[in-house]
Specification:
The complex is a heterodimer of chains A (113) and B (114). By secondary structure, chain A is mainly β. Chain A contains no helices and 11 strands. In chain A, the strands form 2 sheets. In chain A, strands 2, 4, 5, 6, 9, 10 and 11 form a 7-stranded mixed β-sheet that branches. In chain A, strands 1-3-8-7 form a 4-stranded antiparallel β-sheet, with no helix packed on it. In chain A, a hairpin with an 8-residue loop joins strand 9 and strand 10. Chain B is mostly beta strands. In chain B, the strands form 2 sheets. In chain B, strands 2, 4, 5, 9, 10 and 11 form a 6-stranded mixed β-sheet that branches. Classes of the chains: A mainly beta (113), B mainly beta (114). Chains A and B meet through strand 4, strand 5 and strand 10 of A and strand 4, strand 5 and strand 9 of B.
Chain lengths: 113, 114
């Protein structure tokens, strides 16, 4: 089975801190994604990557950056955390073609105080 | 561009009753369509997917969905609800050519009463 592992299930940080969320997948997938999930809004794509060192903005990239130095690891960075970034963050990965489903981690519930 | 509309943020059924979760999509290209389920405090798990091989798609846990191009719909059904089906369900769409992002609906929470 594909395993997507997010480093933390729950995280509490303070406004202005630099926050790192880590995601690792073990199936050699080309594509990796970061979403945030908010009640009533569904999943919104923050950033994605289709290859090592490649990154593309999703629908809501403001306030975030990403890093993909190795194929299996995709990091989401909140440069200066703000309270409106309190959310559930989900990482996903998929093989190259569009017909293949994305596999999700269990999520990180991030609270910014 | 693609979009998904899920009708009803909450759906309540009794155990043993038919489950019907509605999904309508908009896509300027032939779509792939997916249903995912999310149990509390977990990530999303794939239920089923439409990739143009067959319009009636069977998934895990007794769920199925029918792709209807004329109605731009991909509704999810299950003949008999179980208590364990209580979860949030997401419909998603992507294009078929090249690298495509998934566009998700806002989700439908299924409540199952005894």
């Amino acid at each position: 089975d594909v395993k997507v592992t997010q480093s933390s299930r729950y995280l509490v940080k303070r406004t202005g801190e630099k926050v790192f969320l880590e995601c690792v997948q073990d199936m050699d997938h080309e594509n990796m994604f970061w979403y945030r999930q908010d009640p009533g809004l569904g999943l919104r794509l923050i950033y994605f990557s289709y290859d090592v060192k490649m990154k593309e903005k999703g629908d809501i990239p403001e306030g975030y950056s990403v890093s993909r130095e190795k194929k299996e690891r995709f990091s989401l960075i909140l440069e200066s955390a703000s309270t409106n970034q309190t959310s559930m963050y989900l990482c996903a990965s998929s093989p190259g073609t569009g017909s293949q489903p994305q596999h999700f981690g269990d999520g990180t519930r991030l609270s910014i105080l | 561009a693609q979009s998904v509309t899920q009708l009803g943020s909450h759906v309540s059924v009794s155990e043993g009753a038919l489950v019907l979760l509605r999904c309508n999509y908009s896509s300027s290209v032939p779509p792939y369509l997916f249903w995912y389920v999310q149990y509390p405090n977990q990530g999303l798990q794939l239920l089923l997917k439409y990739t143009s091989a067959a319009t009636l798609v069977k998934g895990i846990n007794g769920f199925e969905a029918e792709f209807k191009k004329s109605e731009t719909s991909f509704h999810l059904t299950k003949p008999s609800a179980h208590m364990s089906d209580a979860a949030e369900y997401f419909c998603a769409v992507s294009g078929q050519v090249g690298f495509q992002k998934l566009v998700f609906g806002t989700g439908t929470r299924l409540l199952v009463s005894p």
